[in-house]
Amino acid sequence: MTEASEKKDVQKLQRVVIDSLEDIKAQDIQAFNTEHLSALFERVIIASGTSNRQTKALAASVRDEVRDAGFGKPRIEGEENGEWIIVDCGAVVVHIMQPSIRQYYHLEEIWGEKPVRLKLGSAKPPMPVKVIAPPEPTGKAAKKAPAKKSSKPASKTKPGLAPKATAAPAKKASTAKPAAPKPVAKVPAKKVAAQKSSAAKPTAKKSPRAKA
């Protein structure tokens, strides 16, 4: 195996370990190149877990992912306590610690001479997402939306009967003054009485004279 292929394997193993830590929400993940410090391993990775339960879950995730990737089964130390768990993956050694223990021992001072830049996030390609456009409306669905209903309540009528017609308001009385009657000529009372008496008396018919 050439040196280039060995480096690729180390980088691949490092990526598998970091992905497995991120899957269980590990905090403050850091990796250091230790080739010049030890001949036993080439990378040291340090991560934090907030509780015994999380540190144990992180160690189990690293063990399973490394084994499934074909790098062999790692060795685990300190799993019973859960405060500081070491996962030995061969070329990569993982220290999973609770924050108080990590702050106390501060392993970054020992192995942190050459930190490795990490690209956090899964190296697995994302699944393609198909965007399906909604079908165009046809037939009845293509009709226009009904008009908005009026906020005023409609008058209720019985079925089959037309609504009653409302009476028109009465016209206001005219305020114009009536026209004054024309003056009538007065007739003297004596003429009126004479006319009445003459009308009451019948006129006598003249008898024809006998012929001689």
In a nutshell, what does this entry contain?
By secondary structure, the protein is α+β, with helices and mostly antiparallel strands.
How would you state the average pLDDT, rounded? 74
What is the 3D form? globular
State the helix count: 5
Strand percentage, roughly?
5-15%
Biggest sheet character:
6 strands, mixed
Regions with pLDDT < 50 over 5+ consecutive residues? 125-134
What is the correct CATH architecture of one domain? 2-Layer Sandwich
Structural class: alpha+beta
Could you give the order of strands across the largest sheet? 3-4-5-2-1-6
Give the ordered list of helices and strands.
Answer: HEEHEEEHHEH
CATH topology of one domain: Beta Polymerase, domain 2
**Name of the top-level CATH class of one domain:** Alpha Beta
For the terminal residues, how far apart are their CA atoms?
A: 193 Å
Q: Quick one: how many beta strands?
A: 6
Describe the model.
It is a single chain. The chain has a domain at 3-116: Beta Polymerase, domain 2 (2-Layer Sandwich), CATH 3.30.460.10. Helices cover 29% and strands 14% of the residues. It is built from 5 helices and 6 strands. It has helices at 3-23, 52-68, 99-105, 108-111, 189-200, and strands at 27-33, 43-48, 75-77, 84-88, 92-97, 115-116. It has a 6-stranded mixed sheet with strand order 3-4-5-2-1-6.
